[in-house]
Specification:
heterodimer, A: alpha+beta, Heat Shock Protein 90, 5-stranded antiparallel β-sheet, B: alpha/beta, Transcription Regulator spoIIAA, 5-stranded mixed β-sheet
């Protein structure tokens, strides 16, 4: 399983006004990869929520800080079998994220806020986080839909 | 996101359209809290039919509106929920805490 094929790379500012721009680009990308409507919305939602978390929690609302987003077509092993997937990597140079706080909150607790991480986990197949060389790196993976086999007549 | 506000009798109706996200949800939150906390409107209806996207901060704004309505004894009603909004409310497992009507006519009924 190699690095995969780079599909799209974005260098963004941590400006909430950029979120709608990213969502627009990703809608086209995910549709082109063959995701269904709900799956496209799930991927877009995961990335939007992840970018929102970066802006709010690592850059504390500053709108001029850098965020890099890359999107690759990859193959991963899942339950022993190779599987095609979309890999999304988001990198920022903000405050180091405390991994112990990456657990979201109980949904039984009805209050505003704290839903973003839950939305991310519900929307993609893999969520990985690490901090290295001064950068927070979030990796998300969404399996591509399996093509229906052609029926022979 | 665009918000327009109408008043019918003692009911405030918000028509919200477009995308509710980190950039726009503070405006929605402020508008909701003004009608509920400052003007103490007895019923606030939020029509979400034309919403294309709502994120967790948008849901949080609606939860704040609901909590404010409980604090002041008002009714807080959501209506016109489209597939995208329903999807996100289901994901948040918060749909059941809101009073939801299919359309505005039902939301305005006595």
């Amino acid at each position: 399983m190699g690095q995969g094929n780079l599909l799209l790379k974005m260098e963004l500012r941590s400006d909430p006004a950029m979120l709608s721009v990213v969502r627009g680009a990703l809608t086209g990308l995910t549709e082109g990869l063959g995701f269904s409507g709900p799956e496209c919305r799930a991927v877009v939602r995961a990335i939007d929520e992840a970018l929102t978390n970066i802006i709010r929690h690592t850059y504390h609302g500053r709108t001029d800080r850098p965020i890099e987003a890359s999107f690759r077509s990859i193959r991963v092993r899942h339950n022993g079998a190779p599987k095609a997937a979309l890999e999304i990597v988001l990198e920022d140079q903000g405050a180091r994220v405390d991994r112990n706080k990456l657990h979201g909150r109980s949904l039984e607790d009805v209050r505003p806020g704290g839903l973003g991480l839950h939305f991310i986990r519900q929307s993609v197949d893999t969520v990985e986080f690490r901090h290295r060389k001064g950068k927070n790196r979030l990796r998300l993976v969404k399996f591509l839909p399996v093509a229906e086999p052609h029926k022979s007549s | 996101m665009q918000i327009s506000v109408r008043h019918v009798d003692k009911i405030t109706i918000f028509d919200v359209s477009g995308d509710i996200d980190l950039a726009t949800s503070p405006e929605l939150r402020k508008a909701l809290l003004r009608e509920l906390k400052e003007l103490r409107m007895p019923r606030v209806v939020v029509n979400l039919q034309a919403v294309r996207y709502i994120d967790s901060s948008g849901v949080a704004s609606l939860v704040e509106g609901l909590k404010a309505s409980r604090d002041v004894g008002s009714r807080f009603v959501l209506c016109g929920l489209n597939t995208r909004v329903v999807e996100v409310l289901r994901l948040s497992k918060l749909r059941s805490i809101f009073e939801v009507c299919d359309n505005e006519e039902q939301a305005l009924a006595p």
